[in-house]
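Worked example (supplementary).
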Amino acid sequence: MDGGEFVIYLGTFSKILSPGIRLGWAAAPRPVLQKMNLGKQAADLCSSSMTQLFVAEYFASGDWREYVDSLVGIYRRRRDAMLEALERYFPREAAWTQPQGGLFIWATLPDYIDTTDLLARALDENVAFVPGRAAYLDGRGGSSMRLNFSGSDEQAIREGVRRIGKVVAEQVALYGTLTGAAPAAPPVVDEREAGHVAEQLADVLELPRRGAAGGRRRAESDR
Amino acid sequence: MSTVAVLQGGRSLERQVSLKSGARVEDALQRLGHTAVAIDVGADLVARLEDASPDVVFVALHGRDGEDGTIQELLEVLGLPYTGSGVAACIRCWDKVLTKHLLRAVGVPTPDFHAFSETAFRELGAAQALPAIESQLDFPLVVKPAAQGSALGIKFARTAADVPAAIVSAFSYDRKVLLERYVPGRDLAVSIVESEDGAPLALPVVEAVAEGRDFYDFEARYEIGRTRFVCPAELPDGVAERTQELAIEAYRALGCAGFARVDLMLREDGELFVLEANSVPGLTETSLLPQAADAAGIGFDQLVARILAMALSREPAGR
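After joint prediction of all chains, the assembly is encoded as:
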């Protein structure tokens, strides 16, 4: 691989082998690599040489492509489950990506919804996401969220998206009430839907509780 | 020397700050010769308290549960003495609407406000009253959840168009929101610690100064690195004293005990307004209460010792 003087190429084993491995590779012009080395050493001295040997051995001898193929199958099913759930439970004002790779869907809500604040409400429902503002340095992304479909199975994904969809729908309805855009009607639940909800309640999922650091805006210094 | 359970962590949005406050309190307790038992508050809280059978409980739990009176209620039931304010005072401080009504009743100035529950908007058409509220309170106006520690969910509406989204955000944190007149001026905080005779002592005033931001960038004040704290605040003659007196009036009106922090605004014309009181203020290295105590010559260990002594000197029941 030679991109000449103008290419810095980064890769990771986190997505194709295991996230806990924390190992990757870089191809870059020598002066850039030297600086990267310096930064890497300042950060953690070096990655575990034992881990590096294991990974090198695995990729030299094992049929890693087959393993990656099996992962692709798992993640594809999870992505599809999440896309279906979004279609079903998110309001029509929302938009989201249709990823052809990776482990995330980026969803964007109407601009009057602040996902940093929405997270507080979602946590009450025992479900979490990464507020979009975390992806920008300049304050954009306030109405977006990053949804991960790699870590949970299809059932948990559907339930999680249903719960987020519920709090989003509440906020959309409240905004409508406040702006006079929609009548303040009580939510209509048809019998089929009610039956579906009851079914899901009977099959309550324990979603793991997540730390809420993302929702905390004020520094400890001003407590 | 006593066995002291230090309650911290918990499920609130302020978990991380609480863990830092707790760890610091534990260190101080150990230096003071006490036995500190750290308890990260969860479903096994009662069992762990019974297991530790402490002489006294140090509440270093911020946010929901720790500041809203829940933990205090539980400690009353268990008959364990604890630091800081009792159940009723915690409830009064946690609910900013209640705080403001009580302050108003005793003549402590607080910015004009209106508060509504979610049902008022959803079922009683309160949205139609928004223009009237806006003309009474003027722009810019502050929208915030009635309950929530720190500044979570606080929005600054510059025009009528900003108000609905700000209300939606505030409702993410609580079922009741507060629309408050914005008071332009200086952001002050007064920490209060009771002295040995039980009289509340106001520590030096701290000022929060927003760094390099324009006047209306309200949110910036609450972001890391954008605020600088000055203690003691540089105030005109007599203003610090007035600020401290007003803070103590608020502390008494709310029935706080042990220690607390009162946040105020000093308007450009010199008028003071109380915004809120915090019944379990932060105790981290950079928190305002320890900073203010330090400025008054009270070291952190001494501060912890005093807070603990106040807890032990009071009857646990009926507070």
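Two points are worth noting when inspecting this output. Strands of chain A lie at 9-12, 24-27, 95-96, 104-108, 130-131, 144-148. Confidence is low (pLDDT under 50) at residues 183-223 of chain A.
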